[in-house]
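Lab notebook, bench 4. Still working through the backlog of constructs that have no structural model yet. Next entry is a single chain of 180 residues. Request: give me the structure tokens for it.
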Amino acid sequence: MKVLVLFGSPRKKYTYELTKAFLEGLEKDTEVEFIDTTKLNISHCKGCNYCLKEMKCIIKDDMEDILNKIEDADMIVLSSPVYFGTVTSFLKVLIDRCQPLYNKRFVLKVEDKIKKKGVLIFTAGGKNKKMIDSMNLVAKFFMLSCGAELVNTIYCLNTDEVGLDKEALQRAYITSKSIL
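Model written out:
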């Protein structure tokens, strides 16, 4: 199984630790590619609709490789802290640039099967539970565009006050075992 982790935190702290706990629970023969999106060169989508004609993006940057990796993966893990109720800007730019995948599935209808599993991992400094719905909605639409079904969400709220609790780490580890 190929697992692609799209990590969007500029800091290696709580979100990274939660993601690491999830990955540690995967079977040893699982192929994991961890991509730190904060280090990539990805331009913003220009809305030019080139991807409607050619099923690829006209912009030549790191996203070309990412789109191929998304298509090759069996599981996609979207990992981010919550910034204003959504993923970080690093992941948001990547998600917006997945328009060729969206068009392929929903406009051109070239591919319609859900073949992959999707997992959302996030941390939030605040404790408002509405962030769960907000993050799930973003992840669900992203996963659908990628041909994946969001099968689980792993999160920890209130990290500003209490940090990352051990129960969240344990849940992440156990969840990865149950998904496979």
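Notes after review: Residues 130-145 form the longest helix (16 residues). The chain has one domain: 2-179. Flag for follow-up if needed.
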